[in-house]
Write a structure and sequence with these properties.
Blueprint lengths: L30 E4 L3 E5 L8 E6 L14 H18 L6 E6 L11 E5 L26 E3 H9 L10
Antiparallel strand pairs: 1-2, 2-3, 3-5, 4-5, 4-6
Helix pairs in contact: 1-2
């Protein structure tokens, strides 16, 4: 499989019964940040001492459906994550930010995982970052770090499990 760019369907519309589209304190989310365009909340099953998710309010399906034009969204999500890590006092070397790649994701609404390292026990295997070789931005992995995702999209490729 390659990381060539394929035309994507329109995935920026309300989706019936998407739990993340309804992220709010009233709906049981532990919100730590919100503005007009983004929401950040504590993961309901944390894999680390600090495990947060940052999502766009507008429904964006997954990291596989985004393109070069979405880099500003990823950059904003990363900036929110950096500010939240700073507020929590997590040193830069103990931070991991990234996305699960379908079909290894749990919710089909783009969500950036913010994890303070180390991750807990066997859960560390859920978030494997794989560095790319031979001109690739990432290796074989079901998790892509946000900077890898941005680099792949800058090359007008799509993000997948196989090396990109």
């Amino acid at each position: 499989m390659s990381c060539l760019r394929f035309a994507a369907i329109d995935v920026r519309r309300p989706v019936r019964r998407c739990i993340f589209c309804e992220a709010s304190s009233e709906n049981g989310f532990n919100i730590v940040f919100e503005d007009q365009d983004y929401v950040a909340f504590k993961d309901r099953s944390p894999a680390a001492e600090h495990h947060l998710l940052v999502i766009p309010r507008t429904h964006v399906a997954t990291v596989k459906t985004i393109a070069k034009a979405d880099i500003p969204m990823l950059t904003t999500m990363k900036g929110i994550g950096t500010r939240l890590f700073d507020d929590l006092g997590v040193p830069p070397e103990n931070r991991k930010m990234g996305f699960h790649i379908p079909p290894f994701n749990s919710i089909n609404h783009l969500h950036l995982h913010l994890l303070s390292l180390p991750t807990r026990g066997i859960r560390k295997f859920e978030f494997p970052a794989s560095k790319g070789k031979e001109g690739k931005s990432k290796g074989f992995s079901w998790f892509v770090e946000v900077d890898q995702a941005i680099e792949i999209l800058q090359q007008e490729k799509s993000i997948g499990v196989f090396p990109c």
